[in-house]
Amino acid sequence: MAVQTTFDFDQMLSSAKEAYGEELLKMAEEGFDFVFTYSDNVAPSTAAGKLTQNYPERCFNFGIAEPNQVGASAGLALAGEIVFAQVFGPFLPLRAADQIHTDIAYNDVNVRLIGTHSGVTAGGGPTHNDIADLALYRAIPNLTVVVPADAGQCRKIIRASMEYDGPMIIRIDRAGSPNVYADDNYEFTIGKAIETIEGTDVTIISTGSCIYECMMASKELQKDGLSVGVIDMHTIKPLDKNAIVKYSNKTGVVVTVEDHSINGGLGGAVAETLCEAGFCGKFKRIGMPDEFAVLGDPDEVYKYYGVERVGIAKTIRKMMSK
Amino acid sequence: MVDLKVIATNIRQGIIKQISNAASGHPGGSLSGVEILTLLYFEVMKVDPKNPKDPKSDRFVLSKGHASPLLYATLAERGYFDKSELLTFRMINSKLQGHPDMKHTPGVDMSTGSLGQGLSAAVGMAMAGKLDKKDSKVYALLGDGELQEGIIWEAAMSASHYNLDNLVAFVDYNGLQIDGRCCDVMGSDPIDAKFEAFNWNVISISNGHDFDEIREGLSNIVKGKPNVLICKTIKGKGVSFMEDQVGWHGSAPNEEQTKQALAELGGTL
């Protein structure tokens, strides 16, 4: 196995949503120089809340006005600051699309946009879903887009971003999701996919907290005698095309899983890559279909659309039975 | 001592030459802001054309980015690049694109063109100036039509919330936008009362083409809050047939019109 995952262990729940704040607070305490902006969405009890209390001179609340927050974050970066801008995910890509495109990406500035509650994880229905963001980001030059698989990886991303040149989107989805990696002793490089489980029959390519569900689907499918590999495509842009082609050709059966529309996100990116590489095997995208999602608790919504272990295993069984 | 009137005329000629040569561009709103930019770049702002990225410099954001010929002609006149480059305006791979591109044009401090976004960027720059305890100021030029964009008021709210007295905005109040008179398209008057309500210090300039009046206005900026100078201007100012004519918002003059415009401005092709 390439890395030590939690595949064979009992689960510890952790939250990437909390981890970004913990890491920023730690980095501020270690003397790293950065600015933090937010928009009326950082609870005082959280680590990010402590950051704003302990370092008020470098933390700016922009109230309920995401476009101005993102535009002003670009201005701060243009004046030489490294900026972490935390925005409630559902109101980031669509509300501030112009600022992301023109102020952040076009000027190629060092702003790290942290979108929390991405995908359908906020609950509360389609007004609070963030399922079109990857499609938008993929079409904007200069953006680097990363999606942590768990809290530990989120901390790695936050820290790695201090040394990274150019704008970055950090897409954080489900809170309180299980750890994917058993510890932090694995190599993480932005833009380089990680093989979390080796497989010879099927390759699942996924991102974010869906990775854990994919691992559990893989475990379930072991009972069917299927060897299902899981690839953590934590960086959506730039995409690790070599890894996609390599692991896809290894099995000839590819499934993508994401908490995003099946259109234009990870699944679309993998499909484009495989098509251009001449891949002729089986391929299926799992994610939110082209409809406004049903109302419900996120876990119910995942089940409804089969974006969790049972649904993923079911889809793969169906593919393999043909 | 530089003669600001001569410089302003040179800038106007540069505007006409760029747009005529490219057969594309926005003359009206470029000509209306000439005196504001002339005063800023030749008297007010601390800038170094040989070191445009100097972090100690004042910053300028052309929030009404379609008035790029005004900015380019001013920067060329100030010595950021050679005036001959103005004739590459809007050509493929030119550093002088239809809307300002800070990555390619010396002296451009912010890429703009999507109306409204510039003031937010200027707010961020001014916040960084406060954070780093810099003496420098951030200047922004807004169009009056641009004030219809919602983000302007998000930015205005945050500028006063954070007491950004190192931010000075100018409104090029020429009263016209592409579809007609601003008051007919989407009235944004009273502009002064709106900025006052957003806790800005408002300075009204009755003639935005009068250097003395703009200068005096700048002497009235206050500490503790952001300042805005609302400058009544004439769109197309300096070219008789363009003045206060909505049709010259985004049209290029033909050869004959170019000759006449330049003749009125004391220049030739």
Automatic annotation (TrEMBL), chain A:
Residues 14-180 form the Transketolase-like pyrimidine-binding domain. It holds the Pfam family Transket_pyr. The keyword Hydrolase does not apply. Keywords: Thiamine pyrophosphate. SUPFAM superfamilies: Thiamin diphosphate-binding fold (THDP-binding), TK C-terminal domain-like. Its cofactor is thiamine diphosphate. Belongs to the transketolase family. This is Transketolase. It comes from Alkalibaculum sporogenes.
UniProtKB/TrEMBL annotation, chain B:
PROSITE patterns: TRANSKETOLASE_1. Residues 7-266 form the Transketolase N-terminal domain. Keywords: Metal-binding, Thiamine pyrophosphate, Transferase. GO terms for molecular function: metal ion binding; transferase activity. InterPro entries: THDP-binding, Transketolase_CS, Transketolase_N. Its cofactor is thiamine diphosphate. Belongs to the transketolase family. This is Transketolase. It comes from Alkalibaculum sporogenes.
